Amino acid sequence: MFPQSFVINNAGDVVVRLHVSSDAPDMETQPLNLRWLAYNGNQTGTLNLKLSIETESIVHDTGPVRADTVSGFGQLGLNSRGFWSFQGHLHKAAFVGNHYAFAIVLEHRDPSGKAVAFVQEDTLGGTLDPRSRDSDWQQNDHSTFISDNWEAIRNTGIRWNLHISTDPIQVVEVVLLPLAVLVGAFAGIFALANDPNTDCEPFPKRRDDDPGIPVVRCEFGPGAPRR
To answer: Sign of torsion, CA 35 37 41 46?
Structure first.
């Protein structure tokens, strides 16, 4: 930043606004120095301001979820750069397996009425089924919907729904329909897809004795497009 100067007559306030690119890395910047003079230079001084750039993170926990004999939990991590990570665990406690869809939707809607969702679907085996009775996942990607609407998203919550069925047909549509009604997404809910080229560090399941917010650290892999 090149030096700039201005004159204030009588009393006044000086407002300094700094606009930081969403691509700026987390760092401690060079000090911002504000030199001032008053009474024809008889009084002078310097204000030294230390600046730091930090990515904001939010991690939403669903807490325990259950649909019939399937139970588990989900977590959705978001950061101000637009990265997201959806992870969780489900377990089947019955003889017969099920197909499932587990969805989390952000309560924030854009001006068009659109909301976004994060959906995990898979199959769980039963005690009489050779397939696994456990499902663990972590989906990662980037969305400009999150970065463009961060100020609103950081102050709103989530809704979630878990649906199981022996018939995998339309299981995703069934799990999303009540969420669209709950958040008032009259323009529809758009499910964001996992991108294997986007890497996010797993964050731990939050404990009651640890009120801290895990940091959502992600980066683009080779060839990962922004959406």
So the answer is: negative
